[in-house]
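[agent] plan:
  1. take the single chain provided in the ticket
  2. run structure prediction with default settings
  3. attach structure tokens to the ticket
  4. add a short note for the reviewer (M.T.)
[agent] executing step 1
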Amino acid sequence: MVDLYRQHQPIQAEIEESIQKVIQSATFINGSQVKEFVEKLASFLNIKFIIPCGNGTDALQIALMSLNLEEGDEILLPAFNYVAAAEVILLLKLKPVFVDVDLDTFNICTAAIEEKISTRTKVLIPTHLFGQMADMDAIMNLAAKYKLFVLEDAAQSLGATYTFPSGKRVYAGTVGDIGITSFFPSKNLGCMGDGGAIFTNNPEIAERASQIANHGQKIKYVYNRIGINSRLDSIQAAVLNVKLSYFGSYLEGRKRAGQQYMELLSAGNLILPVLAGNRVHVFNQFTVKVDAAIRDELRAFLAKKGVPSMVYYPSPLHYHAPYKKYFSGSLVNSEKLCSQVLSLPIYPEIDAGLQEYIAAILLQGLNELAF
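[agent] step 2 finished; step 3 output follows
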């Protein structure tokens, strides 16, 4: 699905040199490479504060802890989603409230949000899924109306942009009160292990998040609040420093590959990703929709031809044992998508010829399985 060796090979010498500097300095925790990366990423995203941490799930936990929530407060999040946000919500003794998603963009359905809001609702989490941002104009208007915090999950969409009606263009993770991302190796900007970060323009939230990530400390051995231990290692920051220099080209590569698939598959009996006009999709995944009756057979057909594929996600969150009791009823779109979605290999360096092969095999499979 992702050829990480292909990405690392051209910059291997730069990465090795950057890592060697960490080894020579012996500052493996909070070294100069971490500070350099934070400054460079903040400049790229045009955000005031970035708090690096150990991974994207920690980033979600730290972000929620920094909002001074109370036990039982309700958090709105999409049901068609990875589990990280939901599990963190329950670990913090908060209440997840699952919201349906839009069939076209796969993101949280803004029309379905308002009916889920109660007097206990405190936070809205739009997950910018697959590389395209949610409808942040509508989300920020709802947040203002009901006085909600907005926590953007940009783990799959770092580098994606949204243009407001005013013409203001912003990056994923920088619009709401707080945002997070992951530097998992397959992400748009990935390290060679685990890593994550929290973004905010609010100095008070930034201060709390920074302390929480460091055992609740601002000054060593002075514990101001309950915290956790979550740090971005200097070696991972050294890798990210190199890759951040190429991040713009990685994003362009993803967009090129996404457009190539759109053209190659335009005549197929499937539904292609919908590209919202005011948003730039950066294709962390290229996800199509196919007839649920043949989706799994199609995956098997692709596998026989040497083409990998993935299903993100095979079932919505409210179907899983730990979360069932927090929802009763049906979320039609989320449930429908889980039976239809199919993701194809995509990464910045993917060859046009390989994409042509993948598209040809996919179209062949669709034709054969239709009869």
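[agent] step 4 note for reviewer: The first helix runs from residue 4 to 8.
[agent] ticket updated
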